[in-house]
Amino acid sequence: QVALQFPDELLADAVEVAARMEAATGAQMYVLGDTTYGSCCVDEVAAEHVGAEAVLHYGPACLSPCRQLPVLHIFGQQPLDVGRCTEAFRELYPERQSRVVVLSDVVYAHAMGELEQQLCPEYPNIIFSRLVCGDPPGPTVPGEERKFGRQFSVEAAGGLQDYAMFYVGAEGLALTSFMLTWNRCPFSSFNPVTGCGRRETLNVNRALMRRLYLVERARDAGVVGILVGTLGVAGYLTVLQHLRELLCRAGKRSYTLAVGKPNPAKLANFLEVDIFVLVACAQNSLLDSSDFYRPVVTPFELELACNPAREWTGNYLTDFRDLLPGACAHVELPPAVPAAEAVPDVSLITGKMRATNLCDPPASQLPPSTALACRDQTRALAEISPAASFLESRSWRGLEQQLGQTPISKAVQGRRGIAIAYEDEGCEQ
């Protein structure tokens, strides 16, 4: 039994592909559509519902490693004018000794071999990245980079910061993630759709300033909502537990929410939450929350705000697995500091004093979800739960049934027309 996962734009071909696959292999095929989260991730949960033993993922992919099912990626082949791309590269890098790393969107990976044949004889210091599905076996060697499903090795003495980046693909989340992660490297790109090359300069600085502002908002937050943005990327349960522990030690309340794809209407239902943190793949975690009622940050930004041992070094992490124990970028939580010895801090947004130390986990915890509670205990619960306290202060708390109190009446004809002028209302002269 094999699951075939298609993005929305390719679902029209799913039936024919599934029929041909069944005829060729004899295996039973299931088509997965309308994924709960981003279509770039493998939907292992939906595949497990049908008992699939493997997943074939069609279309663009973030190449995040999966938990347990074997996955075969079929990226597709979008057309690329290799000659025009070569000319754009020469215009952007006229110096033949330039050190450049070439990255590409997965749908143009099929043409990278031909582009390499065109450029390598002229540029001896050019490096082409390779696509790697899943985690490659063995440890990394000095100078080797393994991120976002790309793998390449640099030979310069100064490391990767001595190289420039050339991206083949349209502007999108993948390019933004690359630019934030390798923000010390100058970026250029070639858009195969428009056939134009350009230097990417100001977008990174503006994006970094926006993200660092969100870190300051996270420091001021008292209630944090942890949004589950993936159920298939390996390590998502571990990072959820890590974030809960981090927020508890920082003296903040946290709520774990599974709402599917986040949008302003969904998150506006949780007014008691000051800020949200999205646990998703490296591409989908960089959510533009400018239209949201509350901002949405990444796990790395939340750790910058709540972990005093982690300092901003200029390296931005979009993959939450880099924060887990055993990763190269993992930083242990420092020991608790008594409140009397804590060094106060001033918020750059509100101007108020705030504590920056980590405390021991509180002894009193919320009652388990299966415990019974009387309605009279609402006020007592409000003292330890921000959500209950917020609900207590609201004048409207939802619809009440009032069984047996509402009189029964027959259906009658209502008003007709539009709200500005019903038919039974007189017209003003």
From TrEMBL:
The keyword Metal-binding applies. GO terms for molecular function: 2-(3-amino-3-carboxypropyl)histidine synthase activity; iron-sulfur cluster binding; metal ion binding. The keyword Metal-binding applies. Its cofactor is [4Fe-4S] cluster. Pathway: Protein modification; peptidyl-diphthamide biosynthesis. Belongs to the DPH1/DPH2 family. DPH2 subfamily. Required for the first step of diphthamide biosynthesis, a post-translational modification of histidine which occurs in elongation factor 2. DPH1 and DPH2 transfer a 3-amino-3-carboxypropyl (ACP) group from S-adenosyl-L-methionine (SAM) to a histidine residue, the reaction is assisted by a reduction system comprising DPH3 and a NADH-dependent reductase. Facilitates the reduction of the catalytic iron-sulfur cluster found in the DPH1 subunit. PANTHER family: 2-(3-AMINO-3-CARBOXYPROPYL)HISTIDINE SYNTHASE SUBUNIT 2 (PTHR10762:SF2), DIPHTHAMIDE BIOSYNTHESIS PROTEIN (PTHR10762). This is 2-(3-amino-3-carboxypropyl)histidine synthase subunit 2. It comes from Daphoenositta chrysoptera (varied sittella). The gene is Dph2.
